[in-house]
Design brief:
Layout (H helix, E strand, L loop, with lengths): L14 E8 L4 E6 L2 H9 L5 H4 L3 E10 L2 H13 L2 H17 L6 E2 L4 E3 L2 H5 L2
Antiparallel strand pairs: 1-2, 1-3, 3-4, 3-5
């Protein structure tokens, strides 16, 4: 509790803009406030309709944003880019991470997510 019994107004909520690469070598850009949960949702076939059409995907890029507004703005910006520019962003992130510790601004993890046969059958 803060001054006068009120809770401090600082929030630790973080937002993420991410890029997925599919088995057909296409890129998908999205945003979320919980990256791990969003990847599980995509993996279970409950996420975007676009990603549901692929056998697997991998997370190739993610960056943090302090607010939802900034995450949405950045998502729109990246979605408007040509594929080559998105791939350059991914490449720079991988190179940066190879040279240093995990930064607070950007991280790149690879998850190969296979949709289960059960998820397809239950539709």
């Amino acid at each position: 509790m803060g001054l006068n019994g009120l809770r401090p107004r600082c929030s630790t909520k973080m937002f993420y803009v991410y890029i997925l690469k599919t088995d057909k070598d296409t890129l998908y850009t999205g945003q979320t406030n919980n990256l791990e949960a969003r990847l599980r949702i995509h993996r279970n076939g409950k996420g975007s309709k676009y990603i549901r059409t692929f056998k697997y995907f991998e997370l190739v890029y993610a960056e943090k944003a302090l607010t939802l507004s900034l995450a949405l703005k950045r998502e729109r910006e990246i979605k408007a880019w040509p594929r080559v520019k998105k791939l350059e962003l991914v490449k720079r992130a991988v190179e940066t991470l190879a040279d240093s510790e995990l930064s607070n601004q950007c991280f790149c993890r690879k998850y190969i997510q296979h949709k289960s046969k059960e998820a397809k059958i239950s539709k």
